[in-house]
Amino acid sequence: MSEKQKTTRMEYISNNKIALTYGEYVDLFGLDSYKNDKRRNNIIVHGLGGNGRKVYIEYEALKENRKQVIRAKYGDPYEYLAKKPVLNLINWDYEAQKFYEHYVLPNGLKLPACDEDINGKRQINYVDRYTRAASWLNMLSDFTNDKKALKRELKISLAVFWDIVTELIRTQEIGIPANAKRLKEKLKQYQELTEPAQQYELLIEKFRFGNGNAKKIKGAAAEAVLLKLLSDPRKHDYTVVAAAYNKFAESNGQHQVTPGAIGYFKNRNEHILAASREGRKNAYSKYSKHIQRDRASAPLLFVNADDNCLDLFFETETWTELGGTKKSKYYRPMLYVITDTYNDYILGYAVGDRVTHELIYEAFRNAMNHIQTLTGNYYLPHQLQTDRWGLDVKLKNKLAEFYSKVAIFTPQAHGVPQGKYIERSFGVEWHQVLKAMPSNNYAGKNITAKERLSAEYVVQASKDYPKIEEMPAIVETFIKVMRMKPNPKTGISRQQEWLKAFNASEKSKVKIIDTAVKLQLMGKKRAGEPLMLTASGLRPVLEGKKISLDIPDQVIYENHGKKVEVIYDPQNLSEVLITDGKGLRFVARPYQKVPAAIADYQTGDRERIGGLFEAKKQIGALLTQTLEQRVKILDEIHIDPQSLLQAGILIKDLKQGAETLYLEGQYQAESIRPKGQKAVKQATKQQIAAQEPEAEEELNPYDFY
């Protein structure tokens, strides 16, 4: 029920004084006016209010300008009070109000239900207007059907009743005819309808809603023709569309329409036409409901990755087909960025001419190294989201597998950039920093942006654009500024904010990995043929640098001559992964040479050299002891290698040990020969001398140094 209907109207108080209720006064003049009038004693107030008590304002004590407003609204107050019994007969129709609240107009909209539009402009509250009209017609229907009740309640004739009603309809601005004859006709139409919904719909003035010309477009065929014309991606002018449609209308008995009607029809059906006119991507972004999400509660729970054509210009020089060179001052690099959605902190990046798989891997390696620098360890994120660049539909290609190994991979849907937090990272703050870069090579936003640099400024500034060789250092500076720039929401740098939250969260530390796993996931395989493990270790050429790797003594001893691959991080050559692709896999670091001259020894060198020789000594011992240990089992299981040789069934695994024992058996003395074993032909002294080993000396590893 509207406030006007709920509020008690003017009435008599003590001593037959006419007074307005507090609610009525505020409805007419506003709350501020009431307070000011009361403070200045411009009104006489009766009652305190509260707990159901009423407050009244005397009519006769009001200033003339206030009285004029009241008379314009209700007519003469004394006559109004004489008509008040009729007003008391009206019962607010809540069913009608519900009907009008939910009623949908032919244009697809609902009836206005407030006194002001979104901009504060006064408008008609049609839900209130039609509900009041229905409530009045209900009262009129009841009393005109029961004339005795009319005389019993009001003690007036039917003729007087109609005079009072028409006057009240006029002064109260009720949405039904104030003329008695037309009012009776409207009442008759209302009574002839049996269903309340039909009665309520009768009062709706449909002509007031929508464009009159648009009503000329009738029928499914007419609308289909117009939708087809308007869906053309070339976006023809409304005059062109109107001319084309009117040809159809003329030959099919339809009304001609104006360009204005075409525009109205297009605006009404914009959601239907958007996909073809603006593209599915834009339409989906505009008309599909955005899912609102809370940010990740801690670092590394959810990271985003995306590319950005960096808005910085650089000068490049390229070769032409004729052998000369050509300069360009408007080169813009591609930047691939990995951010943590916890606070948009940049974890890693890579910059290049274009986006490639290797550029993406480089960005992830950079992120891992940065995390290790901040925390002391390598940590993988829990969840990763990127766009679908470079991915196949089934997410089975190499890049998709890489993403899935890094984290739970949830790629963004096609054409919905707002789904990634990182898209919003490339916004205002991003460009504020680019504009302030000391290199003074800001390129402005992309060609579709509203904010662009003037052509004159770009030409003038291009004289001092940095060369492409300076790009890595400039980009690195930009990333550092973004990381250390205070977060506007907290006032502290995003790096401090990120690190503090990381240290406080156990979830962030769950996916810790070691160097081997990091290189296995993200490392770059050395180009060229596999290398061979020797006593000299490995000396691969990585990123144009020859590096001598420190290979453990035991690895050389057990895998001498084996071919291996080198997997490395171009940004961190201090640790590489060595593997044969099967069971051999270990992390190697650059070999630290020892001084040859004792005079060059530094603190700790003597101990380190001693340790190296001790390791060599242990390998020397293994060279002689391992074989002896391995063949002892033959005595325990009573296997005679000589017999095996004679029988021609030598087992491959025992071949080496069997041959050794056979030679010893040839020259053993009879006293120590096993029973039943026949002596072999005696060898000459020269033969024995040739077979006997030299006196064994203790192996000195320093002899190899």
* Percent strand: 5-15%
What is the CATH topology descriptor of the largest domain? Nucleotidyltransferase, domain 5
* Name given to the CATH architecture of the largest domain: 2-Layer Sandwich
In the CATH hierarchy, what is the superfamily of the largest domain? Ribonuclease H-like superfamily/Ribonuclease H
DSSP E strands, number: 21
- Under CATH at level 1, the class of the largest domain stands as Alpha Beta
Number of helices: 30
Helix content: 40-55%
Largest sheet: 6 strands, antiparallel
Query: Would you tell me the overall average pLDDT?
Result: 83
- What is the alpha-carbon Rg in Å? 47 Å
Question: Which oligomerization state do the chains in this entry correspond to?
Answer: single chain
N- to C-terminal separation? 104 Å
Low-confidence stretches: 1-8, 679-683, 688-696
Number of domains: 5
Task: Look at the helices and sheets and give the structural class.
Answer: alpha+beta
Quick one: overall form? elongated
InterPro entries: RNaseH-like_sf (IPR012337), RNaseH_sf (IPR036397)
Organism: Pedobacter cryoconitis
Region (Disordered): 685-705
GO molecular function: nucleic acid binding
Structural overview:
With 705 residues, the protein is an alpha+beta fold. The protein has five domains: 3-208, no CATH class; 217-287, no CATH class; 303-509, Ribonuclease H-like superfamily/Ribonuclease H (Nucleotidyltransferase, domain 5), CATH 3.30.420.10; 528-593; 616-691, no CATH class. It is built from 30 helices and 21 strands. The strands form six sheets. Strands 14, 15, 18, 19, 20 and 21 form a six-stranded antiparallel sheet that branches. It has a five-stranded mixed sheet with strand order 9-8-5-11-12, sandwiched between helices. Strands 1-2-4-3 form a four-stranded antiparallel sheet. Strand 1 and strand 2 (17-21) form a beta hairpin. Helix 5 (77-88) crosses helix 9 and helix 13 crosses helix 14 (259-268). The termini are far apart. The model is unreliable at 1-8, 679-683 and 688-696 (pLDDT under 50).
